[in-house]
Amino acid sequence: MIQYEIVVIGGGPAGLAAAVEAKKNGINNILVIERDKELGGILNQCIHNGFGLHVFKEELTGPEYAERFIDELKNMGIEYKTDTMVLNIDDEKNIKVLNSTEGLLEIKAKAVVLSMGCRERTRGAISIPGYRPAGVFTAGAAQRYINIEGYMVGKRVIILGSGDIGLIMARRLTLEGAEVLAVVEVLPFSGGLTRNIVQCLDDFNIPLLLSHTVTKIEGKDRVKGVVISKVDDNRRPIPETEKHFNCDTLLLSVGLIPENELSEKAGIEIDPITNGPIVNESMETNIRGVFACGNVVHVHDLVDYVTEESSTAGKNAARYVKNELIKDAEPIKTKPLNGIRYIVPHTVRVENLEDSLDMLMRVDNVYKNAKLIIKADKNIIKKVNKNHLAPGEMERIKIKLSELKNKKIFDISVEVEREDA
């Protein structure tokens, strides 16, 4: 059995940042395991710019952003295995992996960082009726075909779902000469960043049809058209609102699912809202010494936030190995209240915080001119004015350590207070 101090599962932006930070904090025996043939994860196919504004204070493409961390990892001499699949991890941090050159390996780790990312929801998850013709793609698959493989997926395109990948692909396809007829969203608001709606749809006069969905896919061998219908408040199609579009391609951008099959096998507790592990302030799961970060915990909108969160996980994994994390401190629970879907981290041990507590969360609806109210038990410790809140944009709240230390606090809650309430 091969032994490492820290094993990082996943070599995308989360895993790279965690491994680099663990090395900076004094851990030398680190292994990164990546199932793809190259490090970098999804960033390799994200050739658009907009990455790095927070971390590097400049605008980079996805491959440029990944390259900076890959170069740093290699310069630090951190060991990595690509084209390697993790088969199993147990609660004793024993890991079984498989690749074509070394065969089956058993690895023992003192600490593990889970950074497997997420996958796209497919057509089967949303139950669109019709045959299974060619021309139906997830937005991420289409992105890979165009940006890495060099194949054009279609000429007349409908996109279902207004998540960021769908919005970005609307622009990408237009620039490649396709006609994007519409982006269709079942909700009454977009699931993507405002900047992507403006830069990818508005700038190219691509219509966004809110409260609509695809109710039929036409064609047996190849997509020939789709039928789009309005939906009611329960997301059910409204009769006699059907519109027909002649098209040869349908892209699905209907949500992302954190890749947590390994986590569940290991006995890690999963939050039913995020579909990711329940973590504390150190990004540690309910299994001591197993940490999680990035999109495997909750789906992020900015890779910069992934990097910052993953650096926290890597640093604390190093502290765990060095026995510097305080284990038995009484945890404070974080509670999402009115208007808040979830908060990460789920629990907080104040003794392990260094300067402040960073909380990431998403709201459940679009709010204008609202406030985020943060309470320690029932006492308000902070109010944040927000002109605009939307589910597609993650909110981040920083609480000073002085607000929490030397006080007996049972929970920290966040809620949306509407000005018109």
Question: Can you give keywords for this protein?
Answer:
421 residues, alpha/beta, FAD/NAD(P)-binding domain, Immunoglobulin-like, seven-stranded mixed sheet, five-stranded parallel sheet, 8 helices, 20% helix, globular
Explain what this protein looks like in three dimensions.
- Helix 5 (164-175) packs parallel to helix 6 (194-201).
- Strand 2, helix 2 and strand 3 (79-81) form a beta-alpha-beta unit.
- The protein has helices spanning 13-24, 62-75, 123-126, 139-149, 164-175, 194-201, 261-265, 303-321; strands at 2-9, 30-33, 79-81, 84-89, 94-99, 103-114, 118-120, 136-138, 156-160, 179-185, 208-210, 212-218, 225-230, 243-246, 249-252, 256-258, 290-292, 332-336, 340-344, 347-348, 356-363, 367-376, 379-389, 395-400, 411-418.
- The chain has eight helices and 25 strands.
- It is α/β, with parallel strands linked by helices and 421 residues long.
- The model has no long low-confidence stretch (mean pLDDT 95).
- It has three domains: 1-120 and 256-325, FAD/NAD(P)-binding domain; 122-254, 3-Layer(bba) Sandwich (FAD/NAD(P)-binding domain), CATH 3.50.50; 329-421, Sandwich (Immunoglobulin-like), CATH 2.60.40.
- The strands form six sheets. Strands 1, 2, 3, 4, 5, 6 and 17 form a seven-stranded mixed sheet that branches.
